[in-house]
Write a structure and sequence with these properties.
Helices cover about 35% and strands about 25% of the residues. By secondary structure, it is α/β, with parallel strands linked by helices. The strands form two sheets. The chain has an eight-stranded mixed beta sheet with strand order 1-2-4-3-5-6-7-8, with helices on both faces. Strands 9-10 form a two-stranded antiparallel ribbon. β9 and β10 form a beta hairpin. α3 packs across α4. It is globular, with a radius of gyration of 16 Å. The chain starts with a strand and ends with a helix.
C-alpha cells in the first residue's frame, strides 16, 4: 500500500490530506474522498482511506478544517465544526476545493469520484451531492447529520445518494430522516436510506461507548453498512 501526504489549499487555508492506494492499482483510478467526523482528519479517517484502497480504489482522507486541525475533547471538536456548520456556503466551497484537489492527484480518475463521510463528514458528503460538484458520481453518509444547507434553491441532484443511519440516533430524528427523503425526492436524486434498528450515532467507531450521549459502536450495523458501501461503490464506478 502506498501512502502519501497530499497538500492543497482553499483560499488562504492550507489543507493536508492523505492519499492511499495499492502499488498495483490500475490508472486512472476512481477516487473515494473520505470526510472526517467532528474531530478532524484523525487516525480513524486515515484508516478508512486505507480500507478504501484495499478495494482497489484511491482513498483520499480529506482535511475539511484545514491546517490538519484535530481534536478529541467535545468542546474543542465543537469549536472546529461550528464555524462550518454556521456557514454552509463556506463549507460548500471547502468541499469544492477538496474535490478539485482530488481530481489533481496523479493517477486519479477525476470523473469518477465518490464522497463519503462520518457524522459531520456525512453531512459533508450530502452537501457535496447538493452542490453538484464536478466529477462526483455518488455520496455515502455514515451516521451523518441531515440538516439542509438553506443557501438557495436546490438544483437537481445527479449524484447517487446513500445514507446509512442508526434509527435511534438522537442527533437525527425520524422526522429528520423523512425530511431528507423528501428533499432528495424533490431534487430528483437517486437515493437510498438504510436505517439500522436499535442503533445510535457513531455506530462505525469502535471508540464510541457513551450511551448517555447517544454515541455507541454497533458491530452488526458497522459490518452491514460497509458491505453496502462496497456494493454502492461498484454501482457508482461501473
Amino acid at each position: 500500500m502506498q501512502r502519501e501526504i497530499y497538500k492543497y489549499t482553499h483560499d488562504a487555508t492550507p489543507c493536508e490530506g492523505l492519499v492511499v492506494r495499492q502499488a498495483s492499482a490500475t490508472q486512472p483510478t476512481p477516487v473515494v474522498v473520505v470526510c472526517p467526523a467532528w474531530g478532524g482528519r484523525d487516525d480513524f479517517v486515515d484508516a478508512q482511506a486505507e480500507r478504501i484502497a484495499s478495494l482497489g480504489y484511491l482513498g483520499f482522507a480529506a482535511d475539511i478544517y484545514g491546517n490538519h486541525a484535530t481534536a478529541t475533547e467535545r468542546e474543542k471538536c465543537a469549536a472546529l465544526m461550528t464555524p462550518l456548520m454556521q456557514d454552509r456556503a463556506l463549507l460548500r466551497e471547502r468541499l469544492r476545493a477538496t474535490v478539485a484537489a482530488a481530481q489533481r492527484i496523479p493517477g486519479a480518475n477525476g470523473k469518477r469520484i465518490v464522497v463519503i463521510g462520518f457524522c459531520f463528514g456525512g453531512l459533508c458528503a450530502l452537501d457535496a451531492a447538493r452542490a453538484g460538484l464536478p466529477g462526483v458520481v455518488g455520496v455515502a453518509s455514515f451516521h451523518g447529520l441531515f440538516t439542509p444547507p438553506n443557501i438557495g434553491a436546490q438544483q437537481p441532484i445527479s449524484a447517487k445518494v446513500l445514507a446509512l443511519h442508526g434509527y435511534d440516533d438522537p442527533m437525527v430524528t425520524p422526522d429528520a430522516v423523512r425530511a431528507l427523503c423528501m428533499e432528495l425526492t424533490a431534487a430528483r436524486a437517486s437515493w437510498e436510506v438504510n436505517a439500522y434498528g436499535n442503533t445510535m450515532h457513531a455506530f462505525t467507531n469502535p471508540q464510541a461507548n457513551d450511551a448517555t450521549a447517544g454515541t455507541v459502536f454497533d458491530a452488526t450495523a458497522n459490518a452491514r453498512s460497509f458491505a453496502r458501501l462496497e456494493s454502492f461503490l461498484r454501482e457508482c464506478f461501473a
